[in-house]
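User: C-alpha cells in, sequence out, please.
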C-alpha cells in the first residue's frame, strides 16, 4: 500500500490548498461588508483587525494550521503606533497575519492586489497602504501618507520587509528592503519585529506538502527610532534583520520544533 502514499499526500495538499483559498474568499467577502459597515460607524480602522481574527478562526478548522505566539505577545497590545515587521515565507503568511494582527493596524501590499475581486475591494475599503513597486516616487508618496496616518490617527502599519516570499526550507531571511525603516524613522515610531518559525514541513509548495500543525511565533521587544535620521536607516535595517534571523535559528535549534513537526505529521490527510 506504500505506493498510495504519494497520492494521499497530494490529495491532502490540494484539499488544504482549496480550503485555504475558499476561507480567504469567504473572509474577504465578509471584509467588504464589514468595512462598509464600520466606515458608517467611523470605525473603519478596525476592519482589518476583525477580518484577520475571522480568518485565523476559520483556517484553524479548515486546515488544522495555527500560528501561536509563544513569547512577547504583550508588545502587540501597545497603544502606541508601531511599524510591525514579519518574515515572509509563503502564501500561508496571510494566516500568520490573522494570528498576530493588532487593533488599529493596516497592512502594506503591492498595488496590483487592489484589482483582485473581493480581496482587493476589502483591502481598499479598509485602508491598506498600496505600494507601487515599479514607480519609486509613487511608493515614497504612499509611505509619506502612511506616516501622516500614523501620527494623526495613531495607526500602526504591518510590512514584510523582505518584499517577497522566500519559500525557504531552512531558517533564512531574504535581504530587507528599507521602506519599513524609513517609514518608522519618518513617523518617529518604534519598530516591532515578529518572527514565525520556519514552517516548511507544514507547507512546502515545491514538494506539494500541506499538513496541519502548530507554528510558533515570537514577538521581539520594540526597537526605538527616536532621534534617528535617514542616515541611520542602513544600520537599523541590518541590525533588525540580524535580530530576527537569530530568532529563526533559535527556533530551529529548539527541540520544541521537533514536537511541532511530529504533531503536524499525524494530521496528514
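Assistant: Sequence out:
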Amino acid at each position: 500500500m506504500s505506493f498510495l502514499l504519494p497520492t494521499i499526500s497530494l490529495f491532502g495538499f490540494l484539499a488544504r490548498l482549496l480550503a485555504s483559498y475558499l476561507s480567504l474568499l469567504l473572509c474577504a467577502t465578509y471584509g467588504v461588508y464589514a468595512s462598509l459597515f464600520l466606515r458608517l460607524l467611523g470605525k473603519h480602522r478596525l476592519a482589518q483587525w476583525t477580518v484577520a481574527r475571522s480568518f485565523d478562526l476559520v483556517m484553524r478548522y479548515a486546515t488544522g494550521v495555527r500560528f501561536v505566539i509563544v513569547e512577547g505577545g504583550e508588545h502587540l497590545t501597545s497603544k502606541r503606533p508601531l511599524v510591525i515587521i514579519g518574515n515572509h515565507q509563503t502564501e500561508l503568511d496571510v494566516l500568520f497575519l490573522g494570528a498576530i494582527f493588532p487593533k488599529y493596524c493596516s497592512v502594506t501590499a503591492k498595488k496590483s492586489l487592489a484589482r483582485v475581486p473581493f480581496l482587493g475591494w476589502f483591502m481598499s475599503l479598509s485602508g491598506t497602504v498600496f505600494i507601487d513597486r515599479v514607480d519609486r516616487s509613487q511608493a515614497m508618496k504612499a509611505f509619506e501618507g502612511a506616516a501622516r496616518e500614523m501620527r494623526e490617527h495613531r495607526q500602526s502599519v504591518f510590512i514584510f520587509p523582505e518584499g517577497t516570499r522566500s519559500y525557504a526550507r531552512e531558517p533564512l531571511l531574504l535581504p530587507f528592503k528599507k521602506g519599513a525603516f524609513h517609514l518608522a524613522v519618518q513617523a518617529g515610531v518604534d519598530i516591532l519585529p515578529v518572527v514565525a518559525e520556519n514552517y516548511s514541513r507544514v507547507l512546502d509548495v515545491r514538494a506539494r506538502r500541506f499538513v496541519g500543525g502548530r507554528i510558533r511565533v515570537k514577538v521581539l521587544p520594540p526597537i526605538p527610532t527616536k532621534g534617528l535620521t535617514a542616515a541611520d536607516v542602513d544600520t537599523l535595517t541590518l541590525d533588525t534583520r540580524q535580530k530576527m534571523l537569530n530568532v529563526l535559528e533559535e527556533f530551529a535549534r529548539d527541540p520544541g520544533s521537533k514536537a511541532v513537526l511530529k504533531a503536524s505529521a499525524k494530521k496528514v490527510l
